[in-house]
Write a structure and sequence with these properties.
alpha/beta; UDP-N-acetylmuramoyl-L-alanine:D-glutamate ligase; nine-stranded mixed sheet; 21% strand; kinase
Length: 317
């Protein structure tokens, strides 16, 4: 297990104000915070580079990350106030968002001392932080590995035409890319999921995955001709908050464990890998995501939680 690999997550940490049936409560949230906590819960050295204030909400973020074993990059608490995402959860457990946000990166932020960088969501497209995220991605790609989840938020990212070029540029520097089918439908409304996956793979990643909610996920790899379909974990739905983030955390953790992420050598191995090499990582991502959607909120499973599932389902190992 590659516990010595250092992971940097770059992106938003915020407060989710979630409304269900007219009742609103605030929770720790943000796509990159969720991924960082998920990777840390799976026993990897994880640091979050983000942007929040020293207000009461920011203090709650800091405390939650400390409790979850996530380091915070110096300068992250430099914002004038902490971003709030207002989420409405419908009767089927699906969340829609509006944001009161500030986004930037700490002065002097660098990815050079880390082995794997993960980023995504509006962090890569909202300025002034977006250009700085791209710089960190390019820096990380020189010596380590990079993963990306566009995690589209139309209310703050503008139109597809405004962000498509930036998203594709980041994809071109990545080793692992994951998007939901809803993300791809928004970005490319007239193109099929499979077509977009092929075009993204041609930009440079070793692996492109599309999650499809209750229909599981599709995966394509540079070293394989055909697409793989991954079935979902059959669970009772709590809500979908954090589902994609948990999938990403489980996938990154397992690829690090398999030495298929976290170094230039690992990048080469991933590019040459076959399905048999990565199916255990895809299964772990399916398990972590399934455990998250079985709870309310962005629950981050640990190795013991994953083991309890796989012990009863050896086909997931």
């Amino acid at each position: 297990m590659s516990q010595n690999r250092r992971v940097l997550c770059v992106g938003e940490a915020l407060m989710d104000r979630i409304e269900r049936d007219g009742d609103a409560k605030e929770y720790i949230g943000g796509s990159l915070l969720n991924v960082a906590r998920g990777i840390a819960q799976l026993d990897h050295d994880t640091t979050l580079c983000s942007w929040w204030g020293k207000d009461e909400r920011g203090q709650k973020l800091s405390a939650a990350l400390d409790e979850g074993g996530v380091h915070v990059l110096e300068g992250t608490e430099g914002a004038d106030h902490t971003t709030v995402a207002y989420a409405h959860v419908d009767s089927e457990g699906r969340a829609t968002y509006e944001f009161d946000l500030l986004w930037d990166l700490p002065a002097g932020a660098s990815s050079a001392s880390f082995d794997h960088l993960h980023t995504g969501s509006f962090a890569a497209t909202v300025e002034p932080g977006g250009k700085k995220v791209l710089r960190l991605v390019k820096e990380a790609a020189l010596t380590g590995t990079v993963s990306y989840d566009p995690n589209i938020r139309p209310s703050v990212m503008g139109s597809p035409e405004q962000v498509r070029a930036r998203i594709e540029e980041i994809v071109s520097f990545c080793d692992i890319v994951k998007a939901s089918d809803e993300d791809l439908a928004w970005l490319y409304p007239e193109r099929a999921v499979e077509e977009v996956m092929r075009s993204w793979l041609a930009l440079g990643p070793a692996m492109v995955i599309t999650t499809r909610g209750p229909w599981g996920a599709y995966a394509r790899m540079a070293g394989e001709r055909d697409m793989l379909v991954i079935d979902p974990l059959n669970v009772e739905l709590g809500d979908t908050v954090g589902a994609g983030d948990s999938f990403m955390a489980g996938l990154i953790s397992a690829l690090l464990d398999a030495d298929l992420a976290g170094s230039g050598q690992a990048r080469r191995r991933l590019r040459q890998a076959k399905w048999a090499d990565v199916i255990p990582a895809l299964h772990q991502a399916t398990v972590t995501s399934g455990l998250t959607v079985s709870r309310l909120g962005a629950f981050s499973p640990n190795r013991a939680d994953v083991a309890r599932v796989t012990e009863g389902h050896p086909e997931l190992k």
